[in-house]
Q: What sequence folds into this?
């Protein structure tokens, strides 16, 4: 389970499934392709959950490990620049360009009202129910908000009673969440209030709890790695690629809760093998720097593809005409994602230097 092997392959998978999600959103009106692509979110969350539980286990073993607040602060600082930039991009596209193009008049009062209403989106807490059933300004960012809420909850529960969480809470969360999801009437809306939180938080919580058992299974498989023959590793590689390929085929042709669950099962198998590092997949992807770049780029693709899609839908209002420009859309998303990531890195680095300079001037040290 070396970090190098694990990160290289999972980063590539994350990028692929972010592209699948973007493709699903692009063809959402006609349903021509990737009708079940929404389950790509489950892969993205389960993959994040693997790294989350690895860090959680390391911190829990330390004499003075990081507490819940310190961890969430670190995660918030990690995501906040990206999500804020993504929300501002959505604001410029939807609230400025599209609104004024349709004859709307911008005023300071309207801008203030919009920002005050969306403040919980910027703070990444709207999915605890503060969204009041409404989608976020940048739709896909609901996942990041739900992930932060679930990580805060799990971090505290795991450090409070690790054994209780692993043997009772996590299995129960999986069983009840999947059963509830299966029996919801109509479309399962992740923004909907379910009595104590939003459905999206329950959906992400289920994926994180699944990631715990994926992590445990991957550790067991890694422990027997030295005894595996070449044939066993070949079979594991075929199984890993086969599961992911079958899930993509399923997403292309069918959209149902049954196949969503089936795809989640395929993800679990593939991630166990991949995270253990016992297949040959890492050897097939030798360009570690390229894979790392794709992994970093996957977050930018996930964040900015939706505002760009809104712009394309406005430029090409007819569905048939819009879908003829898929490759142009994909190229624009990729180019903007690279620029988005590079620009944010420069801004974050500059802000860090500025904060360091201001802190030395505002705080007196003895």
A:
């Amino acid at each position: 389970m070396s970090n190098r092997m694990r990160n290289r392959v999972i980063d590539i998978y994350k990028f692929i499934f972010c592209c699948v999600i973007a493709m699903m959103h692009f063809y959402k009106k006609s349903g021509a392709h990737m009708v079940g692509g929404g389950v790509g979110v489950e892969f993205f969350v389960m993959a994040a959950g693997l790294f989350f539980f690895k860090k959680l286990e390391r911190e829990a073993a330390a004499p003075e490990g990081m507490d819940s607040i310190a961890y969430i602060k670190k995660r918030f600082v990690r995501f906040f620049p990206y999500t804020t930039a993504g929300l501002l991009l959505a604001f410029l596209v939807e609230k400025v360009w599209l609104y004024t193009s349709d004859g709307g008049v911008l005023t300071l009062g309207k801008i203030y009202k919009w920002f005050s209403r969306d403040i919980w989106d910027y703070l990444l807490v709207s999915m605890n129910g503060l969204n009041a059933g409404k989608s976020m300004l940048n739709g896909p960012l609901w996942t990041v908000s739900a992930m932060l809420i679930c990580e805060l909850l799990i971090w505290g529960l795991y450090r409070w009673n690790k054994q209780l969480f692993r043997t009772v809470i996590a299995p129960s969360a999986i069983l009840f969440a999947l059963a509830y999801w299966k029996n919801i009437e109509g479309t399962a809306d992740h923004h909907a209030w379910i009595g104590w939180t939003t459905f999206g938080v329950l959906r992400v919580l289920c994926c994180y709890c699944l990631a715990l058992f994926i992590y445990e299974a991957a550790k067991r498989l890694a422990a027997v790695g030295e005894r595996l023959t070449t044939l066993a590793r070949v079979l594991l590689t075929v199984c890993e690629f086969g599961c992911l390929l079958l899930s993509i085929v399923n997403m292309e042709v069918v959209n149902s809760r049954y196949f969503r669950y089936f795809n989640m099962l395929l993800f679990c198998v593939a991630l166990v093998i991949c995270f253990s590092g016992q297949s040959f997949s890492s050897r097939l992807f030798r360009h570690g720097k390229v894979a790392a770049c794709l992994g970093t780029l996957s977050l930018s693709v996930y964040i900015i593809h939706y505002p760009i899609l809104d712009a394309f839908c406005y430029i090409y209002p007819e569905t048939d005409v819009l879908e003829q420009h898929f490759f142009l859309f994909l190229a624009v998303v990729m180019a903007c994602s690279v620029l988005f990531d590079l620009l944010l890195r420069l801004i974050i680095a500059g802000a860090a230097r500025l904060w360091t300079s201001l802190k030395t001037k505002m705080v007196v040290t003895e």
Observations:
- The CA atoms of residues 300 and 306 lie 11 Å apart.
- Confidence is low (pLDDT under 50) at residues 2-6.
